Amino acid sequence: MTTPTEDRPGRPPGHRTRTAPEGSASSRTIAFVLLCVAALVLAAGYAWWSTARRASFVQDVTLPPIGSLAELEAPLGREAPAPTAGEPSPTPRATPHDGPPGARQSAARRPEEGPPAPAPPTREPDPGPATGGERPAPESGRAPAADRPASGAAGRAAAANDAAEGAVNGGSDIGRDLLFRHTGLDESFGVASVERLGAAADEGRRATPLRCDRVDFAGERGVCLTTDRFYATHSIMVFDGAFEPLHRLPLHGVPSRARLAPNGRLAAVTVFVSGHSYLDEGFSTETSIVDTYTGERRIANLEELDVRRDGAPIRAIDFNFWGVTFAADSDRFYATLATGGTMHLVEGRVSTRRADVVLEGVECPSLSPDQTRIVFKRRVPLGLGFGWRLQVLDLRSHAVTPLAELRSVDDQAEWLDDATVLYALPDRSAPTPMVTDVWQVPADGSGMPELLLKGASSPAVLR
């Protein structure tokens, strides 16, 4: 017997309402559960694969620690001050980066790619910086290390004098300390580390307690740009010579550049607000200047500056600043301004919040210690796109000297001294492009690139 169906308004007489099959809801539930299980299995498989792949090339070793920059103040050939009572003394142990200085710094002197470097001009060659003690010790007649102070400001000054004398006599790396980001494939990857050029094997690379994306140090302050890997948040941390955090400020993008004024009072920090590389189209940056003593931003964004060209103010919606370098007075600075698809070198002052356009075609400037030249990267055609070549600009004559490094360098270079430039390049022999090495090249266009530090980036010379 069939139950009569009630006629409803708008429906033809005899219309019956169809109901879904009773098992369809439970089928959808089962399909959803199976889909969730499959997603979990895929996620677990990927986690296992990535962990196994990482374990296949990451060495289970760490660098020996260093507790303070004061441990580096003793000149070479003299023992560091003994730790105070109750203070643990770090125990050096062998790592893959240790070894004779010649082996550490002369292992791969020639670039792995690119056309051969031009032959040096026919003239008396500049000895340049030593790399691993290959030159005989200069007969400078300076006092032996035992007669010099071992620590404190006097010790640092004595070490600087030794380095200056070494530069004149062909040994510019004597007693030179570098702070940098360690990029070796081991448990210390990403840790800010220090190394003394020309040091013995047992005085090799040592790790600070800081893990940084970019690092710099000058005067009595350092900056460390950090990333919280889980929450993908970024910050700038200001620290002292004992690697103690003093201030921490949030960053509104992916860390890109960091540079301190010579006295360490101001720090310039650049982040990518959109995009993750200067190769990306439509990338956007934010560059701020921070007072490292108060922890406050002196300039929240360089786009706030009064920018002028030939005395006339200019303003555009596509302004982007990056690559700040400070002069000796720590107020005047140079930086890159990009607008309308063109890169400009600008000179500004923090105190007046004004910048003037100096020249076109300059990216990531770095001012020499003698304040007369700027090393920068210039965009050049490369394959179907473009790359960067290192060049040096004379600030007085505006003469430009291409350097002997013929590979593309996407870095803000650093000066080892007035004659030598440092920069980082990916290690083509490593299984990941995150591994980089620090290279050096003469600043006068002569010579050829030489490997200085394996597994390193973001070098800062501790002057």
Can you describe what's shown?
Helix content is 12%, strand content 36%. With 463 residues, it is mainly beta. The strands form 6 sheets. A 6-stranded mixed beta sheet has the order 13-12-17-16-15-14, with no helix packed on it. β4 (214-218) and β5 form a beta hairpin.
Q: Helix coverage percent of residues?
A: 10-25%
- What is the SS-derived class? mainly beta
Strand content: 35-45%
Please tell me the overall pLDDT: 78
Number of strand segments: 26
Rg is: 28 Å
Shape: globular
Uncertain residue ranges:
1-6, 75-174
Distance between the termini: 101 Å
The major pleated sheet works out as:
6 strands, mixed
Number of helices: 3
Q: Give me the strand/helix succession.
A: HHHEEEEEEEEEEEEEEEEEEEEEEEEEE
Enumerate the strands of the largest sheet in spatial order, edge to edge or round the barrel. Answer: 13-12-17-16-15-14
Keywords:
6-stranded mixed β-sheet, 4-stranded antiparallel β-sheet, globular, 463 residues, mainly beta
Which secondary structure elements does this structure contain, and how are they paired or packed?
Layout: H1 24-57, H2 101-105, H3 152-168, E1 177-182, E2 191-196, E3 206-211, E4 214-218, E5 221-228, E6 233-239, E7 245-251, E8 254-260, E9 266-274, E10 284-291, E11 297-299, E12 306-309, E13 312-313, E14 320-326, E15 332-339, E16 342-349, E17 354-360, E18 363-367, E19 373-382, E20 385-394, E21 400-402, E22 414-417, E23 420-426, E24 436-442, E25 450-453, E26 456-462
Parallel strand pairs: 12-17
Antiparallel strand pairs: 1-2, 1-26, 2-3, 4-5, 5-6, 6-7, 8-9, 9-10, 10-11, 12-13, 14-15, 15-16, 16-17, 18-19, 19-20, 20-21, 22-23, 23-24, 24-25
